[in-house]
Amino acid sequence: MPKKRSGSGLSATQQAAKFLGVSVLAGAVMAGIALPAAGALGLAAKGSVKGFDEIPANLKSPQLSQRTNILDSQGNQIAAVYSRDRTVVDLKDISPYMQKAIVAIEDSRFYKHGAIDLKGVLRALNKNAQSGGVAQGASTLTQQLVKNYFIEEAGDDPTKVAEATQQTLGRKIRELKYAIQIEEKLGKKKILENYLNITFFGEQAYGVEAAAQRYFSKHAKDLTLQESALLAGIVQSPSRYDPVNDEAEATKRRNTVLQRMAEVGDISQAEADQAKEKPLGLHPSQPKNGCITAIDGAGFFCDYVREVFLTDPVFGKSREARAKLWNQGGLTIRTTLDPQSQKSAQASIKDHVYKSDAVATAATVVEPGTGKILAMGQSRPYGFGKDETQINLSVNQNMGGGAGYQPGSTFKPIVAAAAIEGGKPATQQYSSPYEMYYPSPVAACDGKTWHNDPGKPAKLTNENASEHGPYGMKEATAKSVNTYYVQLISDIGICPVTDMAKRMGVERADGRKIDQAPSIALGTQEMSPLTMANAYATFASRGMYCTPVAIESITQQVGSEKKSLEVPKSTCSRAMSEKTADTVSTILKGVVEDGTGQEAGLGSRPSAGKTGTTDKRYAAWFVGYTPNMAGAVWVGDPAHKRRMTNITIGGIPHDKVYGGEVPGPIWRDMMTGALDGKPAPDFQLVDIPDDNKGGDRGKGRGGNDDGNNGDNTGGLIGGLIGGLTDGGTTGDTTGATTGDTTGGTFPTPTFSLPGNFIQGQTNGGNGNGFGGRKG
């Protein structure tokens, strides 16, 4: 017998001899090992090895990790995600050739011995003693199954994997006890079925069904003799016998399996010889794992579904528990994604913005009254390469997005809703001068008051000197008059606006609270497209806000059975009265028909919406809706470095980008395709008398959008807005204000805030903030 290796304990041969010796001394070999099943538990009866009785008696078969299939609302697969590519199948769905091949090469006496093959142990012991090492193993399929159980439980933890595969006497003893238990409990057919489903076949394929798909693009039940022999041969060393990378070595191994099948009588020698002459016949399919493989640009929606799963307590009390369930897989997740809407969104995005453009676009569509997310896409694809990203530009930071983008004048309808809900009529007029100082003081929340800085009071302007009031709400919204909306929020107070925003699910993308400053009326708080689309869906559903939802149902494969899992449900609540919502819809319908959003119109189909362009043209928006669908489109530089002036987008040059000019047509084409074939209901409109006092002001210029040019600073002065008083809370005001200020098609944004006016607008992460613009 070889000598003990220095510093390494017993040699493998010595360990095997000791293991065999203690078993024989216990009088258990014949009772529990050599004989099939009956009396198997006799090994433990006399305490054959110290500590044997302390090993837990019940080994629970692990829930095998499998692929998870994510489907759209029609049942079409969006993507498959998995930690291990595996599809569990019944033994009847595995080719008989495959069953015979794996038994022949791995454990030819499988049906003749119990948990341990005594003849195999003696044969291996003799062979190893002669070679002075470990030339031959003696593990049965049952023991290998136990070992694979331990590996499966270890998951991707390298320490646990090492423990599960270490060549020690202790592991062998534990393996033995559990193998005996499994033989008693499962029987040979179930053991073979479990083994074929758990074993690794290389090339990311776990289990014979995944292996059949990977190497031959077929189901396990359809494997031929030579194909079965090839797969059975891979198991011993998946890397060495990988047919994709070493066809010659794999062929030798396949032929070895075929010969062994002939020797044990599973096939004739003639059949073996004939099969040996055939080529491998590979028809490999590439592994497809993860949201990066999603169809129709749905990778970001797929990623959003994953984030919902990992963050929602309905799937587990802790993130660790939810992650374990996700990695375990075997889930079929049916989502809310509407394939028609998704295809239309991606087609529109592709037509209008190239992935290589200096700026990007993101679009989201939701269903009013249900909160269902119908589409989610962006121009920069999901990936790791050039002009690709893994940041979901449509969602909040905590769900895989960035810190958001200032929505500009698309926030103004929320101010209007707060005012109307509080009793202001839609005919409410304000002087709306061309330029003005921010009114001061302005009531804020919790009894606080916002004050303009008396030393350096901030001023704002409309588009040009001819743009002045008085204006009523309808005309001021159609032209997106900045001074009107600042006067309106100063009149009603800041708190009703932030309260309305909260009821409509409007929150900053970075998770911070909305600032207590009148400048929020001009859309200075960074939001995500999903937030804005869902907020406008509240108008479409006549005042009912529904939380966004992405998952319809989930079933989990557990063994041969399927069970349904509870999923998050959308919760709906009334954000405003029907009359308020209908009034806002009437106002926003005018924006599309006669105001800055004309290029977003849907023709004969009733629609409503609002444009928005932010400070220095870092972002442009169109958010709109019909009674049965709402959507938001954002265009801009996610890093907030590229201003959209003198820029080419989608092959079209632009001197300046407006919300109605670029996002508007994207929204129009997206919604046209998404709504094709669907009903075209009208809004419940209210009568808002026209304001004729303004005459034809502002109609001499074409104009589309709002916001700040950033170059036109003549009407502004430097200054610092004071904080909130009555408590000393500083008003975290912002810089990027908007002002859709002319009556035609494309007005030029007019004013930027002075230096020191902006406080606290920092980049919240992922390059999506405004980098603390302070001047």
Structure in words:
The termini are far apart. The strands form seven sheets. This protein has a five-stranded mixed sheet with strand order 2-1-3-13-14, covered by helices on one side. Strands 5-4-18-17-16 form a five-stranded antiparallel sheet, with helices on both faces. It has a three-stranded antiparallel sheet with strand order 8-9-21. The chain is an alpha+beta fold. The protein contains 22 helices and 21 strands.
Concise overview:
One of its GO terms (molecular function) is carboxypeptidase activity. This protein has 22 helices and 21 strands. With 775 residues, the chain is of the alpha+beta class.
Largest sheet: spatial strand order: 2-1-3-13-14
- Span between termini: 83 Å
> How many strands in all?
21
Number of helices: 22
Structural class by helix and strand composition: alpha+beta
Please tell me how large the radius of gyration is: 35 Å
Largest sheet: 5 strands, mixed
- Strand fraction band? 5-15%
From the spread of the alpha carbons, the general shape counts as: elongated
**Could you list the spans in which at least 5 consecutive residues all have pLDDT below 50?**
1-55, 133-137, 694-775
Provide the residue-averaged pLDDT: 82
Helix content: 25-40%
Protein name: Membrane peptidoglycan carboxypeptidase
Biased composition (Low complexity): 731-744
Pfam family, one: Transpeptidase
InterPro entries: Beta-lactam/transpept-like, Glyco_trans_51, Glycosyltr_51/Transpeptidase, Lysozyme-like_dom_sf, PBP_transglycosylase, PCN-bd_Tpept
